[in-house]
Amino acid sequence: MKASDLLVKCLENEGVRYIFGIPGEENIDILDSLLDSKIQFIPTRHEQAAAFMADVYGRLTGKAGVCLSTLGPEAPNLVMGVADANLDRVPLVAITGQASLDRMHKDSHQYMDTVALFKPITKWNTLVHTADIIPEVVRKAFKLAQMEKPGATHIDFPEDVAKADLIALPIPLKDEAHTPYPTEETLGIAAKLISDENYPVVLAGNGVLQSCASESLTNFAVKLNIPVATTFMGKGAISDDCPLSLLSIGLRDDDHISCGFDQADLIIAIGYDLVEYPPYKWNPHKSKKILHIDVTPSEVDAYYNVDMEVIGKISETLDHLSGMVRIKETKHIISILRNSVTEECKITHDDRSFPMKPQKILCDVREVLKPDDILISDVGAHKLWISRMYPVYKPNTCIISNGFASMGIALPSAIAAKLVYPERRVIAIMGDGGFLMNSQEIETDTRLGLSFVSLIFHDNSYGVIKSKQLNFFGRSAFVDFSNPDFVKYAESFGAKGYRVESANDLKPILQDALKQRGVSVVDCPVDYSENIFLTQRMSKLSSPNTNE
């Protein structure tokens, strides 16, 4: 058997369905072996997009997504997506073709130490220096990528090793180590900590979604009457139509949800990762009591010095605590906090100003999508508005990168989402800056025949940076640019293009676009002066009078 055949058999053994990547001279043996495999190789138009697709595939399935490149310039192009998966705690395995072993000791065409390149952005990586170790390397890469906390791993595969002949088999899969249950003693101490405090608030992170603990979290919050705020990546951990949902925290330092956190005497951090939202923003005086509930121990941070941590399966922990903690009867300011957002939704629902306010755009998006449908956010000003204004009712129906926070992720991610959930409708929202970073993947989608909507918030600038510059300095610097005709651009790929020309246009355009086959690109001018007005409103909401 050729070593590249063994590699593919090992990938099949791991349940790999798709590999995203670009062909190259040093990975041609792998590509040839894939021709005889049930694994579908999806050629992309840029390696970064391939890694983003693998990233979101892993995010939605819990199984490692796989991306492939060759050596030289292609391998570094994977870095953005691999780093995003690693810091967003998503299982991903990157495979790079490499120069033959006999030219690694000297200067050689396109050769670089790819293992050293990927080491800081992966949980583990290695060079396959002999074909005999392929089964162990592949099994270890997937095991480490998928175990808590998930992340990226990397395999560097030299071209001469790929051609080697050998007799070997993949390592049979066995039950992975199960997350342990917390002890009764630990649960008892945690229950007393919650019971002794008057105003606990839950901070729910991405770990709740990864652990499939949303139902347990909701039952815990409702039974004990404890409000829940989520991180951006934790949106959907509790349904936003639950009266105890405080929506998302993290819009800025004096976030409106901080009104509740300021009063809290205990923060119950559940599935929370510091990369999602730094604790110095919600615990600036290092004075909060903190209960850490997660599958892994807490990170050491001066602002996250936990009083107690319960390590184990999140759902089991919450289910047990629900029956052990005294129900809270204190009055919260939940209504004040929720109303600050819901009132804004009501006000902007019938707004007819143009260019459109971001609140109005998201109101229309929410009305055309069903609870199971998926919204994917790129990175930019629109991400902040999505976190604040877009209600989410089910887990994993709003995908936001906020650990590494990579621009250009949304359009490739929509392709991955449709591969995982072909029956669901998908809208990828991005700014005009992020759209052009990976818009070449419209061709990839057109080739695959997948259907989704790419909604562009069009303002001819890097909007979130511009608003920060205006806030800090009263002027902007180097953030403005021009754009192509997005409708014609979409049509040049064989996609459908729409241009929003009034506030009345967007909703019917979205309804029509969601019925189309293939990609639909919707160009929607946005009024980002609302970023400044939001800052002013939040400052008023965060004033001392609110917390009386």
Q: What does this protein look like?
A:
The protein is α/β, with parallel strands linked by helices and 548 residues long. It contains 23 helices and 18 strands. The protein folds into three domains: 3-162, 3-Layer(aba) Sandwich (Rossmann fold); 184-332, 3-Layer(aba) Sandwich (Rossmann fold); 339-535, Thiamin diphosphate (ThDP)-binding fold, Pyr/PP domains (Rossmann fold). The strands form three sheets. The protein has a six-stranded parallel sheet with strand order 2-1-3-4-6-5, sandwiched between helices. Helix 3 (47-61) packs parallel to helix 5 (79-87), helix 11 (214-224) packs parallel to helix 13 and helix 14 (334-349) packs across helix 15 (358-368). The longest helix has 16 residues, at 334-349. The radius of gyration is 24 Å and the shape is globular. It starts with a helix and ends in a 7-residue tail after the last helix. The model is unreliable at 543-548 (pLDDT under 50).
Provide key terms for this protein.
18 strands; Rossmann fold; 548 residues; 23 helices
